[in-house]
Amino acid sequence: MTQSNQRGRSQTLVVPPRTINVQKFAESRGPELGTLHSIIKNRLQNDFSSQRSKRRRTTGHDNRSTKNKHRKRQKVGNKDVDKTASLGNDKAAPRRVRRRTELRMNPNSGFLTSGDGTKRLRTHVWHAKRFTMTKLWGFHLPLGLHGRGRGSMALLKKLKDSALVHDTSYLTIVQLEGPEDMVLSILDKTTVHSSSQSENASQDILSGFICGKAMLHHYGVPFSAAIAPITYMWQPQNFCCINAKATEDTYEKQNGFDDFASSRQLWIFINASAFREGFEALQHACKRQITTVLNHPMNDSKCTVSCISLEDRLANLDVIGSRALHVLRKTLNPATCNAPRRDSESKFVKTFEEDQIPSFGVISITVDDPRTFTEGGVANSSYINAEGALAYKKHEIKGNASSVDNSEKESNSPPCKFSEFKENSNLSENMDLWHVYKDVHPPVDESLLCSKRHNQRMELFGLDNRISGAFNTPVNIQHSRCPILLIKNYRQKSFIRWSIILPLSWVKVIWMSLISNGAHAIGLREKHWVACEAGLPYFPFDFPDCNSYSCLMEMDEAAADESARRTPLSSRPFRVPILSPWNSVHLALDKRSPTERSFPLHCKDLCTKEFKQRSFHDFTGCGEDQHATTPFQGFIARTSHILSRFLNQINGSHLLLFPKFSNGENNIFTVIKDKMWNEHSDMVISPVNYGPKLCFVRVLLRAYRKGVFEGGAVVCAPHADEILLLTQRSECSEGELQITESSVRSYFARQDDGKWECQIPTDPVTEDSYRPPIGFVTTGSILGSKKPVAVALCEAINLACLREDQWRVASLKRRKEIYVLVRNLRSTTFRLATANIILEQSEDDDIDYL
């Protein structure tokens, strides 16, 4: 082989030999090896034995499980598969061989199950070696790292400085497909959306550019029986824009283009604990909607809405932390067309660097197998559907809906790249995650990739020890590409979360790549800590109005009773309610004077004559809901619109509750600065008409000075003199509000039916220190947090009256926070804390969750 140099002379290149003879190579390098040996000999003083401090006894040669067990156990590998096949019907393979072979399987759909039918995640083997596993919601789920449940400080540090990853494949996707107007009608009648969404944001949700959050309810009763919080997204309207002209001509010839355009797909993400109830509710809603359409005089037999479950098709991975985007850039390499790479001007890099993706934005992208990267950095993004992000950014800048169309016309690069990819590789039909009924090709088996890498190394070193038969036949390029959806959950700058929706068969590949690139895996317990640190409600712990919460608390209570039964009486702790008695909140309202409330004894007559005549009677009506089986007697106001309508319903517009709206109405700071408020508040106000179904709001509790609040702690109303005593006390003072040990034990009593009730003391001595509950802590404070916060649900009327009492005290400064007393269930000390109502702080309502 010759090559011309700069002077024009030909130069012969020496090609390395194909194979190397090791014996001849050693003979030719004999003097060099001898010199090297003498140097090492002098350095070690002719003592080539290993140091005793570095000697380790190894048992790698022994394939027996124990010394006392003489039966040899071969290591599980490829030999086990051959052994299983060779045995046939003569002798069954050992269970460990069959189980390991089964766990290595990677089918396109479906979860692997254990003997009792419990499903295993695709990352089950990885988690089982490192985490404490638990059976929950029909899955084997990672509960947390081994130990006593500590390590929150290290986790919060990783959240701040690194990235966390959690396998949320237990979330089930329900697909609704049908005419857009019918699917919209079903969604409106079964969910409660955020009332602060602008028209542009709602239009972007419908277009598929961003996803939405809502609370799922039963059909027709959206304010009485909550099922679970959901995340939903629409199939993008311009998803089939690759060959739009040909598609348009085809459907115009068939006179069915309008029907095709109006047919949409909607994905709804439901937690596994509420999947059965939510899926049945959606199926019932589809049947009711179809019946309504058929009874209409202008009915059409083609108008149907299908409701199917994609439980065994798709998976979900959450990447959380400040460096989540950095890990994603190293892991996800967008598939490229034959055009040359331009990393610096890649739409993928520019989109993320310019932060043009809105909150809850959805990105459709096709990525290469992360195990087959050949170049560093991020490749050209030929598959990124960034039109929604750019359009939404122009919404925020210009503020008109017409900018979406203009941005789509101005940005010609994405459709062009789509068309180039189809012309070059013709893989557009298989790169559609929205049509999961088309089989998505699984990734290439790890053994084949290892064989390929081995052959490449042998070829690089010029050795002929290659594995024969590896990659002799070309593998389809579809097996090395995967369509995914990226969802950006930027609720706040301090909490960054990305969700990856991908086919179930690709979970192992993406998971191992995320771990290799620096992400730290977490379990359910650590995810609960992250949600509390971010101030987000965690399902189902912060949703007592859902059946999933009741079922989970009953399981925990049964486990606590079993643990107490096995504990000796001398060291057995006294029982406390695991499922908080929410019905005891009525005692705090009943304790107030009749001028502040109007709760007649003939509640049934009041409900039938007054409340049921109003359109929004579900808030305070006493009628029982046929779907309500939860012991939570009340409802939770998660939007400012619901809280405002509740106040108008009970004649409580004068109450000091200020739900925050986007237009700035009911601003709490305006009332705080009003110097004439005391004069206006002395006017005669009509009593509040509340019923047995109370309204709760979510609050964030922060200890005034010190204290850690546990889950299930009691939130009580303090007196004005107690607030003055605790706020004006110096740091060195040790005095606290205390109750006796007997009062703690008798605060709650367990009835014969297993329910807990709050007991009113009859002793005059303990009656003065008795404080009825106004709410309960659902998520306790996280140890190690710089700003520890606890999540609680408190009754709205009690909070309003408590704020009014505190604002009337001249020596107390008016503030948006409300002073409350918090006591852990087994503690005798009341801690002073400040409560912040979420609906008064954020315009985005309280719909988001983790």
Automatic annotation (TrEMBL):
Residues 753-838 form the POP1 C-terminal domain. It holds the Pfam family POPLD. InterPro entries: Pop1 (IPR039182), POP1_C (IPR055079), Pop1_N (IPR009723), POPLD_dom (IPR012590). Residues 497-573 form the POPLD domain. Residues 56-178 form the Pop1 N-terminal domain. GO terms for cellular component: nucleolar ribonuclease P complex; ribonuclease MRP complex. Its main location: nucleus. This is Pop1 N-terminal domain-containing protein. It comes from Cuscuta australis. The lineage of its organism: Eukaryota, Viridiplantae, Streptophyta, Embryophyta, Tracheophyta.
